Amino acid sequence: MMKAVILAGGRGVRLGEISERIPKPMVEIGGKPLLEHQVSLLERYGIKHVIFITGHLSSVIEEYFADGRKRGVKISYYKEEKPLGTTGGLKEIEHLLTEDFIVFYGDVMLDMNLAKLISFHRKKKSAATLVLHPNDHPYDSDLVEIDPDSRIVAFHPKPRDDKKYYRNLVNAGIYVLSPGILDHVKKGVKADFGKDLFPKIVINEPLYGYNTAEYLKDMGTPDRLKNVEEDYLTGKIRRLNCENPRPAVFLDRDGVINEEVGLLHKAEEFRLLPGVADAVKKINQSEYLAIVVTNQPVVARNLCSIPQLEAIHNKMETLLGEQHAKLDAIYFCPHHPDKGYPEENKDYKMDCDCRKPGIGMIKKAEKEFNIDLSASFIIGDSSRDMLCGKKAGLTTIAVGCGYAGKDHAAKPDRACRDLPDAVDYIMGCSEKKK
Questions:
Q1: Residue 161 pLDDT > 90, yes or no?
Q2: 3-238 is classed CATH 3.90.550.10
Q3: I need a surface site. Which of 242, 256, 335, 393 has the fewest CB within 10 A?
């Protein structure tokens, strides 16, 4: 049976007076310590043996939880006599971790489908699975790079090369680990998973990234704690568990997010339209997912490669992140059905179900994020976007920028000036439903 280890030794100095009385993981959210929320989540998914690695004011945790019997779990403790980072305490209890186990950081408030995470880990035969997510400040975060199969290929700590663009994926501090990972940890040496261990072994060990839009936030400052408390009291934290269907705003790219230049195929050609970052940020602050679905036949036309297209998308995420906005996912179709041109990339010249007005990208997103399509919207500038939306059961919004729907007739459910106007309309619809 899988065990959980919770790293609960942090001092929480940024929380001020609170952390002088209690350890940071015992700060209350909704009248219960953060650690109790974590233990309840683990128990909900059948993980009933929890090991706390403690340090600062450890007696407070031990007195509160005791052996866990009253909560239907088994709780044991290892107290670090000196801080050993995030890896050192695990090495000390290595003899207890003989099967795959899950690790929580004790300052992260979360509610996620752990069964889905563990299934992903096992399916990939991963040595270490890191929970990843985009955030609204990637410029001062350590970023993680994954390949199309979700295998981690690189870590990009800050500061980074400001002449390159990186995907907005951040380590959330939740891991599923195989016991063999601890072979790479030196006993008695202070080290950190994200900064020291994972970058050292990424080339030789199969590490995978599990990207999720579920609720994962650290509460290490007074402002963050206040926001987490509010999200808990409104029920938002539980609602964002991917067991619950969630609405999305699907966004076309060219002419909606960025200036339409015609077959854009170089990162230097990409420029955000006015007001776009603020509009995406409004989506982020709601419970809608922000998901790009874009036809990119520039690959089939051999104007750029997949890596070059990804560089364009990395720039898009970087520019949005600079203004505290994020995308939950980007789906693109590189295909085009018209064949027979000497300069074409034959591997991508085909009919497919992902090219809009096909709904392949929408259906893939629906499956991966458990999206309620009937409550979702698509914002686009062409009839392909409108036809795709109608086929998928989305509410369709045409914007007056880009092609402005002039390629041929497909009547939208709503016409708006641009993305900011469309998002304001969606947020207004959401308020009326409350």
A1: no
A2: yes
A3: 393
